[in-house]
Design goal:
It is built from 3 helices and 3 strands. The protein is of the alpha+beta class. It has one domain. Strands 1-2-3 form a 3-stranded antiparallel β-sheet. α1 packs antiparallel against α2. The radius of gyration is 25 Å and the shape is elongated. The model has no long low-confidence stretch (mean pLDDT 84).
Length: 115
């Protein structure tokens, strides 16, 4: 039983380390998605994201198809990272519950028989 618990504890440490790495990577990626607005016949591109309760639109300048594809791939990478983080959190919760020792409570009846 000790071997299994050792393996599970090692897996828990690995999962926590991966979680920190994915969270760090997620923080480095820009939030939001690209919104294109046509103003007076010209096309303007903005990065739209939430900051608390309000929406923020950050001007991105003139973007060609290559620039738009790059930002879209970053958005997909962020979504994938978010999925990995959710899976790792679930795995960590499972491992923590599995490794938690069940504390034996002394029942009043067993203490009477011992006396």
């Amino acid at each position: 039983m000790k071997i299994i618990k050792g393996i599970l504890a090692e897996e828990l440490d690995n999962a926590r380390q991966k979680l920190r790495l994915y969270q760090k990577e997620m923080a480095s990626l820009p939030k939001g998605s690209i919104v294109s607005k046509r103003i007076k016949g010209r096309l303007f591109h903005y990065l739209a994201y939430r900051n608390g309760a309000r929406m923020v639109f950050k001007y991105q300048g003139k973007l060609d198809a290559k620039g738009l594809d790059k930002i879209e791939s970053i958005r997909k990478q962020r979504a994938q990272c978010k999925g990995f983080i959710a899976d790792l959190k679930q795995q960590i919760r499972f491992l923590e519950r599995t490794l938690r020792e069940r504390k034996r409570r002394k029942s009043p009846a067993s203490s009477l028989h011992a006396a």
